[in-house]
Structure to design on (494 residues):
């Protein structure tokens, strides 16, 4: 009954839940695909991005990965589609698509 | 060899607890269950058990400590009554949904108010929908035997749910009766070690209990919990069979007493069933076909089996030792009727509220219930569906 948290998505059947919804293991949040909860989806326009990095700290869920001082495309497994990054971007390099999962 | 003794129900249950030797007991005293932790602390002080006893500041804390302890991997036990159980209510639900096989010895007592310390089932019935397994005893022997079997049911991997072992306050808890105890090592071997797959203090593995479930998971979580509870039926029978092999005493979901050819029957829980059997014997001596179905397992409710056992009964009285404030029936009344309806069985049914706050339940008063059933048989008129027994009016 040990949990493979990546399999506990929104379509999980009751038979496949862990006992008492317990989560075995630590640092498992990364493996849990909370991006499924999203109803609006951001798009990263790479050509418009100046790499100012104002978006990354504005994200409440670490869904904008930054590697070697540069942001990469969205981590859609964890982005909840809140749209805060779109408002934080001074260069219109992030566009929100309403109702797109 | 069985040990002949004479013990009160509380002593009997405390003795079973000593033989089980659980890891942790958090408890807070309340009449009439106080003696259980009281006896148990002397076992702790005398070195007869290895249990860590935790004196807590309330029953809410007692059950919370039970949850923490059980999640840590320790076999955990507690005891309470009445308002103590009511104060636990919030955390009773958590214990069940976290799938922690805690054992609680409930000595049934009226809930306030009016404040009263005597027996009825309003505490147990108030907790009937918390997800706990509930098992009831008629006498001290059954209270002891149920306690010995409790962890085997609760800790079964297909169940993993907390269990409430119920007996009647004062009537069984404080009355001394002859009893047959099992030897310590027989109980120890029967109950075995608690070896959960996962627990908080397990080496090299971490685990989170009780995580938040967003809306999308709660129905599935409840459904999974229900499956564990349903599985407790099969396990209860398997454990009873094994228990019979070591004790010679047989148990099921319920006891049928002279029920097989009964036209008139009574469904009842707890100590009053013994009185009802006397009433039935006397009625049988007069050629009246009366019988009893005494519930042992109340949660999960053995609905289909109860309907099957009552299928030939024509006039039925269902006895509730609590007021459910439903207006038309008590909890047992509602559930037995549902069981019958689902099987397309339609005997004439009356439901009684009886024995509240320790009101005497006598052979005479229970005989009067059978007389009421006979009256329906004679007149064809059901009369009031929900009645009070022995109430002054």
């Amino acid at each position: 009954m040990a949990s493979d948290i990546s399999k506990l998505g929104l379509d999980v059947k009751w038979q496949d839940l862990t006992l008492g919804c317990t989560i075995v293991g630590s640092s498992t949040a990364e493996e849990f695909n909370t991006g499924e909860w999203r109803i609006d989806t951001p798009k990263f326009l790479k050509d418009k991005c100046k790499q100012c990095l104002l978006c990354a700290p504005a994200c409440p869920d670490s869904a904008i990965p930054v590697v070697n001082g540069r942001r990469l495309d969205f981590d859609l497994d964890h982005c909840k589609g809140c749209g805060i990054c779109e408002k934080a971007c001074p260069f219109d390099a992030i566009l929100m698509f309403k109702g797109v999962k | 060899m069985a040990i002949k003794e004479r013990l009160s129900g509380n002593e009997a249950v405390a003795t079973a607890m000593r033989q089980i030797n659980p890891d942790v007991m958090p408890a807070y005293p309340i009449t009439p269950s106080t003696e259980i932790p009281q006896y148990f602390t002397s076992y702790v002080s005398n070195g007869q058990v290895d249990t860590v006893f935790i004196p807590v500041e309330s029953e809410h804390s007692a059950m919370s400590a039970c949850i923490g302890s059980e999640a840590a991997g320790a076999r955990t036990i507690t005891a309470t009554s009445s308002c103590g159980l009511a104060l636990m209510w919030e955390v009773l639900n958590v214990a069940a949904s976290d799938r922690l096989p805690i054992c609680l010895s409930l000595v049934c007592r009226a809930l306030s108010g009016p404040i009263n310390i005597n027996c009825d089932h309003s505490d147990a019935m108030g907790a009937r929908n918390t997800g706990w397994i509930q098992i009831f005893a008629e006498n001290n022997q059954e209270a002891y035997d149920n306690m010995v079997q409790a962890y085997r049911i609760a800790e079964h991997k297909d169940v993993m749910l907390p269990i409430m072992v119920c007996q009647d306050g004062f009537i069984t808890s404080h009355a001394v009766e002859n009893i047959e105890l099992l030897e310590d090592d027989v109980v120890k071997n029967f109950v075995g070690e608690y070896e959960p797959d996962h627990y908080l203090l397990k080496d090299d593995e971490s685990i989170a209990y009780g995580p938040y479930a967003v809306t999308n998971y709660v129905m599935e979580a409840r459904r999974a919990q229900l499956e564990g509870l349903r599985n407790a039926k099969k396990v209860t029978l398997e454990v009873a069979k094994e228990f019979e092999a070591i004790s010679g005493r047989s148990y099921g979901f319920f006891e049928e007493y002279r029920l097989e050819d009964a036209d008139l029957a009574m469904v009842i829980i707890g100590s009053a069933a013994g009185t009802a059997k006397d009433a039935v014997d006397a009625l049988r001596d007069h050629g009246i076909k009366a019988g009893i179905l005494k519930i042992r397992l109340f949660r999960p409710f053995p609905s289909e089996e109860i309907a099957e056992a009552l299928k030939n009964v024509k006039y039925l009285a269902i006895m509730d030792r609590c007021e459910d404030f439903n207006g038309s029936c008590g909890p047992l009344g509602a559930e037995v009727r549902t069981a019958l309806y689902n099987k397309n069985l339609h005997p004439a049914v009356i439901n009684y509220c009886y024995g509240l706050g320790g009101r005497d339940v006598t052979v005479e008063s229970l005989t009067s219930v059978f007389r009421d059933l006979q009256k329906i048989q004679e007149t064809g008129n059901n009369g009031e569906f929900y009645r009070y027994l022995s109430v002054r009016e």
In short: The two ends of chain A are 30 Å apart (CA to CA). The CA atoms of residues 44 and 94 of chain A lie 5 Å apart.
